[in-house]
Amino acid sequence: MAERRSVKDRLPTFPWDRLAPYKEKAAAHPGGIVDLSVGTPVDPVPASLRAALADAADSPGYPQTWGTPKLRASAAGWLERRHGVRVAEEAVLPAVGSKELVAWLPTLLGLGEGDTVVHPELAYPTYDIGARIAGATPVASDGLAALGPARAGLVWVNSPSNPTGRVLGVPHLRKVVEWARERGAVVASDECYLDLGWDGTEPVSILHPDVCGGSHENLLAVHSLSKRSNLAGYRAAFVAGDPALVSELLAVRKHAGMIVPAPVQAAMSAALDDDAHAAEQKERYRARRERLRAALEGAGWRIEHSEAGLYLWASHPGHDAWGAVSHLADRGVLVAPGEFYGPRGASHVRVAFTATDERVEAAAGRLAR
Ligand SMILES: Cc1ncc(COP(=O)(O)O)c(C=O)c1O
To answer: Which atom of ligand 1 is least distant from the CA of 39?
Structure first.
């Protein structure tokens, strides 16, 4: 009998397990660990969003896969108000957090063996995972020209980037769109940090008319409320863009039961209708970013990119990535080695500034010593 090959066998080992000994070391610090290794929100869910969730708690029936008309109107409204992007309400589809959509998009689009999924060289690992789940071939490449005639089914861009915080300008994004359109490839733009530009940086959506010339054909933008609205625990995201692609995704997701719970849809709608809580949260991150950046630079670290998002992309002349992780763990500070995001990260660490003010202050104090 032929042996079954599990999907798990196509996937790499979970890299975070390799960080465990450093986490233990950092936790042994007398002042306690400062965990800056993951970008998970630590501040409360805004009261208005909790109220919206609770008000929709009596939801005995199945929710709509497509999202309520109210949620789709809120998403379209936010895109237009905040990012100058106009989409029809039919061109919006909620997802159970954006990681779910990223991991399943190649499969949902019907990609598989013989298809290529291109993603940035330094990247959130789930683009690669999604290609592998589908049985497609992941290719890490920042230079599309270098791909030659390879048939790309899907090209991921991620601006602002995790892990580097780099923001791609309009000309760069426009070139990606043109390249993909010439080849019939879909461009998926992971824009979960779009609202988090610093020092005057204003990240632009792939769906903005300056980038795509007003046509969303073959384009998808993925948005998440995890970071903007402290909703990582709610699993709240959506995809918008090409109406034909969105309806294709909807058709498959309906059959597969990939549905956002109704109370979460209500909380998402409330979050997208309100900018005040997001501005308040952004100010918290701004202060933490400035504190950590100054402390790292004062201790001889170099920060590259990091003009947007929730991370500082840092390197130290005395250490490679794992050496830097170890050096900081000795001070009770846990960060992620750049290597987790691709071989080009071998001399960097990613420092998340998603810790409380108190923990950020503790880290800054330890760096100064
Ligand atoms: C680039 C990127 N995409 C997607 C996600 C997933 O976010 P969520 O599933 O919470 O929407 C993250 C989370 O850190 C991320 O950094």
So the answer is: 14
Which CATH number applies to 16-39+277-368: 3.90.1150.10, 3.10.150.10, 3.40.50.620, 3.40.50.1970?
3.90.1150.10
- Nearest CA residue ID for atom 6, ligand 1: 99
How many angstroms separate the alpha carbon of residue 98 from the centre of ligand 1? 6
Residue nearest ligand 1's atom 12 by CA: 99
Tokens 């504190």 sit on residue: 291
33 vs 169: CA distance, rounded Å: 37
Q: Distance, CA 318 to ligand 1 centroid (Å)?
A: 31
Rg (CA), the chain: 21
User: How far is the centre of ligand 1, averaged over its atoms, from the C-alpha of 190 (Å)?
Assistant: 8
Strand 311-315 and strand 116-119: pairing?
unpaired
Coil, helix or strand for 308? strand
User: Is there a common fold for 16-39+277-368 and 56-273?
Assistant: no
The residue-averaged pLDDT of 285-303 equals 98
- Residue 149 has a pLDDT of 67
Tokens of residue 54, six digits: 């609770």
Atom number in ligand 1 closest to CA 38: 14
Find, among 206, 268, 231, 237, the residue nearest to 99 by Cα. 237
What class is the 56-273 domain? alpha beta
Q: Tens of pLDDT along 223-240?
A: 999 999 999 999 999 999
Give the model's pLDDT for residue 1: 65
Enumerate the domain spans of the chain. 16-39+277-368, 56-273
Kindly report the pTM of this predicted structure: 0.97
Are β-strands 116-119 and 137-140 bridged in parallel, bridged antiparallel, or unpaired?
Answer: parallel
Pocket, ligand 1, Cβ cutoff 6 A: 39, 97-99, 102, 124, 158, 162, 190, 192, 224, 226, 232, 237
